[in-house]
Amino acid sequence: MTRVLVADDQALVRTGFRMILAADGITVVGEAANGAEAVAEVRRTRPDVVLMDIRMPELDGLAATRRILTGAPGEPRVLILTTFDLDRYVYAALAAGASGFLLKDVTPEHLVAAVRTVRAGDALLAPVITRRLVERYALRGAERLHRDLSALTPRELEVLRLLAAGLSNAELAGRLHLAEATVKTHVARILAKLDLRDRVQAVVLAYETGLVKPGAN
């Protein structure tokens, strides 16, 4: 059973999300109207996934995400709710460990699929969208990811570069003449070696270490 916490300062949004998720067998274990409540509710309810709005009173979603994703065992996955390109803080949220973002006008089917995707351990963000966000906000004071890339093999470094260029696993497989299962194994090893949550953080790291430069093809 997937357990979800909905954090949004609009009661109508919270109610709508609760109804959509419940209709598909997903349990909403709590709601929060601001970031401080979200942090407290995460500690109380131990959800698998948090739907986190960015713009909330008292404590915004970015600060709440940082407090929630402390690296402690059993931490939830955080999906940021945003108005697409309008939130300056999306990049910082991804760097802090969020597993992706959803549009506020997400369809019911997409919402359910998104929750299940991140619950399974995957990131909900197309690589090309990640790249655009990183290029726009990289090196502008967001929380940095510090990792040593020396542990990666030449092949793994190549895979990481292509991830940051916006290629999907299928596209990576075609470019490198590998089976898609082999590419998935390389990606998994990169994440494990660098202690990263998902491919979103891998793309962020590729930019912040200088492995890929903003604007590079």
TrEMBL record:
Protein origin, superkingdom: Bacteria
In-chain residues carrying the UniProt-annotated modification 4-aspartylphosphate: D53
InterPro entries given in the database record: CheY-like_superfamily, NreC/VraR/RcsB-like_REC, Sig_transdc_resp-reg_receiver, Tscrpt_reg_LuxR_C, WalR-like
Record Pfam families: GerE, Response_reg
Record-annotated HTH luxR-type domain positions: 145-210
Keywords: DNA-binding, Phosphoprotein, Transcription, Transcription regulation
Residue ranges annotated for the Response regulatory domain, each copy included: 3-119
Signal sequence, start to end: none
Protein name per its UniProtKB record: Response regulator transcription factor
Organism whose genome encodes this protein: Amycolatopsis heterodermiae
